[in-house]
């Protein structure tokens, strides 16, 4: 689902930009604070409906303006389609092919996009929620009914937690458990199946980037020897005392180990970046093999935290993907970029974007 054109209005420091894009590789250069990352952020929000830098979408509107707008033209299954997103402080308006888009889940299927930015190490260093989002994004794109079961589980979890916090009778609290268990165990089964498919790809990529493969294990969020029903019963006293459901797929995590060490606690920041990139690049390879729409990949300042040898290895992996690529760099003449021949090149300065000949 390549993006052929991009339009930006009043997004961060970019007043207006119209770009004709390459279906394979797009390299964006420019000094620090010029607007390079903002350009990637606009592409990301067109596919995700949110930024990879901030949860406060209203801060993306250019100072003094009431709205921002991002538009795109893409090709999918040989046909072109327009995408458009307008955001004001009252909310989003999103359209695709001239019709309204029903929600972020639909948007994510229309233009799947993934990002490697200077904070990507949070996928390793951060809490379980970071890794659950990574896992569920992948499952969502290869399992058509996953989002339905995930929503059912989240709804039952919210209702059970609300009943716990309100101190309602046990019968009212436990009334939500059959739905929570059925949907939760289905979510878990999807995750397990996806992990078995994606792990070999992550191990292969990480061995090339780090010299040794990462070992992954999925912790499902409740004891392995118990069913979810049994785990809820065992956790009942603590749940009632604290007004919160302590077991279930909302507590799942992926343990990532490098050799005999926890990748979260023991390896350097640069290694954490390569480990996190291994997860994302392995996921993109697995998704393509599983028949999912190949996501566009945004790579912001790949040289950050990496020496020249590791940068070259990372770029070799990126170029080998079947994805449309968008990369930002300080200097387009960097010798490490030699493998990125062809494609489109842009320069950004003071929020103005120009295509280089």
Brief rundown of the structure:
The protein is an alpha/beta fold and 357 residues long.
Task: Please specify the SSE layout and strand pairing.
Blueprint: E1 3-11, E2 14-20, E3 25-29, H1 36-48, E4 67-76, E5 79-88, E6 91-96, E7 99-100, H2 104-110, E8 113-116, H3 122-125, H4 128-142, H5 146-165, H6 170-174, H7 177-210, E9 214-219, H8 228-242, E10 253-258, E11 261-262, H9 269-289, E12 296-300, H10 308-319, E13 325-329, E14 344-349, E15 352-355
Parallel strand pairs: 3-13, 3-14, 8-12, 12-13
Antiparallel strand pairs: 1-2, 1-4, 4-5, 5-6, 6-7, 9-10, 10-11, 14-15
Helix pairs in contact: 4-7, 4-9, 5-7, 7-9, 7-10
Features of the shown structure:
357 residues; alpha/beta; Rossmann fold; Glutathione S-transferase Yfyf (Class Pi), Chain A, domain 2; 6-stranded antiparallel sheet; 6-stranded mixed sheet; 10 helices; 24% strand
Task: Describe this entry's structure for a reader.
By secondary structure, the chain is of the alpha/beta class. The protein folds into 2 domains: 1-112 and 293-357, Rossmann fold, CATH 3.40.50; 123-292, Glutathione S-transferase Yfyf (Class Pi), Chain A, domain 2 (Up-down Bundle), CATH 1.20.1050. Helices cover 41% and strands 24% of the residues. The strands form 3 sheets. It has a 6-stranded antiparallel beta sheet, covered by helices on one side. A 6-stranded mixed beta sheet has the order 8-12-13-3-14-15, with helices on both faces. A 3-stranded antiparallel beta sheet has the order 9-10-11. A hairpin with a 2-residue loop joins strand 14 (344-349) and strand 15. Helix 4 (128-142) packs parallel to helix 9 (269-289), helix 5 (146-165) crosses helix 7 (177-210) and helix 7 crosses helix 10. It is globular and about 70 Å long.
């Amino acid at each position: 689902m390549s993006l052929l054109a991009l339009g930006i209005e009043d997004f961060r420091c970019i007043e207006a930009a119209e770009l004709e894009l390459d279906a394979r590789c797009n390299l964006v250069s420019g000094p620090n604070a010029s607007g390079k990352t903002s350009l990637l952020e606009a592409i990301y929000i067109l596919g995700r409906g949110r930024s990879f830098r901030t949860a406060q979408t209203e801060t993306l509107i250019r100072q003094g303006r009431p709205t921002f707008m991002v538009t795109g033209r893409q090709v999918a299954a040989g046909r072109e389609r327009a995408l458009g997103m307008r955001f004001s402080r009252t909310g989003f308006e999103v359209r695709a092919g001239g019709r309204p888009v029903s929600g972020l889940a639909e948007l994510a299927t229309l233009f799947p996009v993934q990002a490697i930015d200077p904070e990507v190490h949070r996928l390793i260093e951060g809490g379980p929620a970071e890794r659950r989002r990574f896992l569920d994004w992948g499952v969502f794109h290869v399992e058509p009914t996953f989002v339905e079961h995930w929503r059912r589980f989240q709804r039952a979890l919210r209702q059970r937690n609300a009943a716990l916090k309100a101190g309602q009778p046990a019968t009212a609290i436990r009334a939500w458990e059959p739905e929570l268990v059925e949907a939760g165990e289905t979510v878990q089964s999807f995750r397990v199946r996806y992990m078995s498919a994606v792990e070999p790809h992550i191990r292969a990529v990480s061995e090339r980037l780090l010299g040794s493969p990462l070992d992954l294990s999925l912790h499902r969020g409740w004891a392995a020897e118990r069913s979810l029903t049994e785990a809820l019963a065992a956790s009942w006293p603590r749940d009632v005392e604290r007004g919160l459901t302590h077991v279930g797929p909302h507590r799942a995590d992926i343990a990532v180990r490098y050799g005999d060490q926890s990748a979260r606690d023991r390896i350097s920041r640069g290694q954490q970046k390569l480990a996190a990139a291994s997860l994302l690049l392995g996921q993109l390879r697995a998704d393509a093999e599983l028949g999912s729409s190949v996501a566009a990949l945004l790579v912001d300042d790949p040289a950050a935290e990496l020496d020249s040898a590791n940068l070259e290895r990372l770029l070799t992996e990126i170029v080998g993907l079947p994805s449309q690529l968008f990369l930002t760099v300080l200097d387009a003449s960097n010798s490490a970029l030699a493998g990125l021949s062809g494609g489109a090149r842009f320069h950004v300065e003071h929020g103005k974007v120009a295509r280089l000949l």
